[in-house]
Amino acid sequence: MTPAFTDYYLDKRDAADRQLASLAVDNAGLPQEIGQALLSLADACRYALTNGGKRIRAVLVYAAANATAGTDEGVNAIACAVEMIHSYSLVHDDLPAMDDDDLRRGQPSCHRAYNEATAILVGDALQARAFELLADAAEFSPSQRIAMIKTLAAASGLRGMVGGQAIDTAATGSDLTLPQLQAMHALKTGALIRAALAMGGIAAGASEEQLAALDEYGSHIGLAFQVVDDILDVEGDTATLGKTQGKDGDANKPTYVKLMGLAGAKKEVKRLLKAALEALDEFGESADHLRDLARYIVERDR
Q1: What is the pTM of this model?
Q2: Which residues face 103 on adjacent strands?
Q3: Domain boundaries, position 24
């Protein structure tokens, strides 16, 4: 990363972290009569939400707003809503019935730190909180709030992240064609990335042409993100990744490396990066942070 982009990225990541810490379920707001169970769930929500993370989806919200309007005023809640959906998905992905992973962001997975029932409820609570944030985002018009809620709901559900996870779970131990693998990850990983960009654009009053450009960019970096994940599953190490290295290969999951080979997967990353950068011609210099984010996504080591 360039020094300028490093400063930008860290500033936006830290802004999201501060907001997430303040927006996590607050024990102080719960009635004393409810007992320890709800207090423990609130602690688990905070654990899952504030245990680190790259916050790439949050930074995409800020950068999309910057590319459109030159400002990201008022988008903190939107960035946090996206990260809450992402964090809930990680908690559920790690469950024994799903990817069965003991580590997340270098810490014990939520179901290991607490228990499986709590982890399921944490995901449910974070999902609900995300939409509450959008509904309460008074800085935006009712039509903007409705558009953002609809965008995030669609990206999170059957035709988005959850649908992609269902395909991934069913495909374990089987072979997929490249188009099938791309379609799966366009839902599982790409849908929420595209939603983050769209919501940043909506918040900044983006035109239809600008939203289309952001969506095209997002479709390419969403796939690139997953191809890099597959490469890191082979080349990375557990300490750096913050999750179990080699897990997908051991589980015989369909991956880009398995389908294309390591060299082919790396070539695909370069192709997707080029396409993502070309999609931003609509914006000129205002989208430089998005360009840098695309490069960061393909160059990261975790």
Answers
A1: 0.92
A2: 108
A3: 3-299
Q: Is 261 exposed, middle or buried (0-12, 13-18, 19+ CB in 10 A)?
A: exposed
Count how many domains the chain has. Answer: 1
Q: Cβ of 36: how many Cβ atoms within 10 Å?
A: 7
Q: Which two tokens stand for residue 167?
A: 């395909």
> Could you tell me which residues come within 8 angstroms of residue 249 by beta carbon, excluding any fewer than 6 positions away?
233, 234, 255, 258
**Any residues with CB less than 8 A from the CB of 296 and at least 6 apart, and which?**
1, 5, 9, 56
Q: 54-80 pLDDT, tens per residue? A: 999 999 999 999 999 888 888 999 999
At 160 the three-state DSSP class reads: coil
> pLDDT tens digits, residue range 91-147?
999 999 988 899 888 899 999 999 999 999 999 999 999 999 999 999 999 999 999
Two structure tokens written together for 81: 């809503």
The residue length of the chain stands at 302
**Phi, psi of 177, deg, nearest 5:** -75, 165
Q: 301 by DSSP, 3-state: which?
A: coil
